[in-house]
TrEMBL record:
It catalyses: L-glutamate + H(+) = 4-aminobutanoate + CO2. The keyword Lyase applies. Residues 9-21 have a biased composition (Basic and acidic residues). One of its GO terms (biological process) is L-glutamate catabolic process. It comes from the Eukaryota. The lineage of its organism: Eukaryota, Fungi, Dikarya, Ascomycota, Pezizomycotina. This is Glutamate decarboxylase. It comes from Friedmanniomyces endolithicus.
Amino acid sequence: MVHLGKVPTHKELEDQKKDLPDVGGLDLQPHGSDQFTASVYGSHYAAMDLPKHEMPEEMMPKEVAYRMIKDDLTLDGTPTLNLASFVTTYMEEEAEKLMVDAFSKNFIDYEEYPVSADIQNRCVSMIARLFNAPLHDENAQVMGTSTIGSSEAIMLGTLAMKKRWQKKRIAAGKDASKPNIVMNSAVQVCWEKAARYFDVEEKYVYCEEGRYVIDPKQAVDLVDENTIGICSILGTTYTGEYEDTKAINDLLIERNIDCPIHVDAASGGFVAPFVNPDLVWDFKLEKVVSINVSGHKYGLVYPGVGWVVWRDPEFLPKELIFNINYLGADQASFTLNFSRGASQVIGQYYQLIRLGKSGYRNIMCNITRTADYLAASVEKMGFLLMCQTGGKDLPLVAFRLNPKDGHQFDEFAIAHQLRERGWVVPAYTMAPHAGTLKMMRVVVREDFSRSRCDALIGDLKLAVQELVKISDAGSIDQYKDHVQRQKKAGKHQKGLNQHYADEQHSLKGKHGKTHAVC
Ligand SMILES: *Cc1c(COP(=O)(O)O)cnc(C)c1O
């Protein structure tokens, strides 16, 4: 998540300086002119802190700027060892080349870059067909667009459902001021944002211990005349399970309720069609009116692309569409942002045609196998598995300590141990009403090979052994203190925004749910 940064005051900057050691006596010799120096580290810039708060008055040589920023970034984690994230960390060089070549293209400029725009439409068409859009009907008008990610796609989906509901209410002479949306309390944070930003009341179906997906009957029971739609998740962020969209669909039909379903297929949209082709979750279900997917997750593109598709313009009201006249050409547009890069859309097209269905199928089946292997290994180590295997859900492994083992440490301590070995395996507190359950989650991505998986298993074993040793020595409380202190002292925590630290409105604020990274 991008942080909302707080700009430090002048006084805070002065105070920070007071903490620095005094190296006044270290001025060995004055720097000469750097003008002709070829060495980055011999220049006076290397002896200075990077400018952080005020834009410097003078320029610096490009080699120096490059090197300094590159060095600074080495303290970031290694993307391939980051098992917290669904987001793509590997693409072929050819794809990268195409994307770099397109860096300077503004995607919105349809007139100037008509091929890029057409490439987006080709992707929309392929994705809509992958999701079984009703194109057998010759009058079908399936619509779709690229976005920055699933979050924007979900904002657009929410707006469309809200507008359709409002129009219907107003046409019937009814009150249209209290829209609500029904969803699982394990939704990704963007659903909370969408509801809040667009003034839609959130109606949650809460998880229970043992059930981390939406209960279809409870969901449909919550629907009333003010419900704009139901969100069903194809692969929840916590346990990766697919929600039963068909059951929700069937209940709505059975009870003759006019309520659309939006499927959040951010992660599952490029997995289920290949690994689990018999699962019915998409436009084959008549109540499913819109679907989003993240191109940058199992769509296999670097971050910055998502997709959303609507079954029919009935579910995408005209009032939301702008015909943008750009340099003489009219283009229908439904986005939150105007300018954006074209690279990600081009990268998506490369993956779709380079890999084809068989390529995606091979990759998705391979990582499903790796996930199953990891799941079996953690179970053997005594952890409780919180996800399914065999391709019944996303290729991730969610697990927790067995309370019967009476360990004195928790999942967060294990995460910390693994972090010291370079792995990012997050620990989470589950969605509310699930007994404040803690869990760990490993997302298996394309570049997480079997041998890397074995390395992780080895380190996980070591981490647990180490923590048992610390517990046996009676020092686990000191260890927990140490972890807490490290967290607080973390250099990068300084940037956290204290002004908003006590927000109480979200599922996190109210229930302590951790928003999963995805
Ligand atoms: C990742 C994710 C999102 C948010 O998608 P972005 O592409 O990161 O904006 C929404 N819903 C689910 C289920 C997700 O996994």
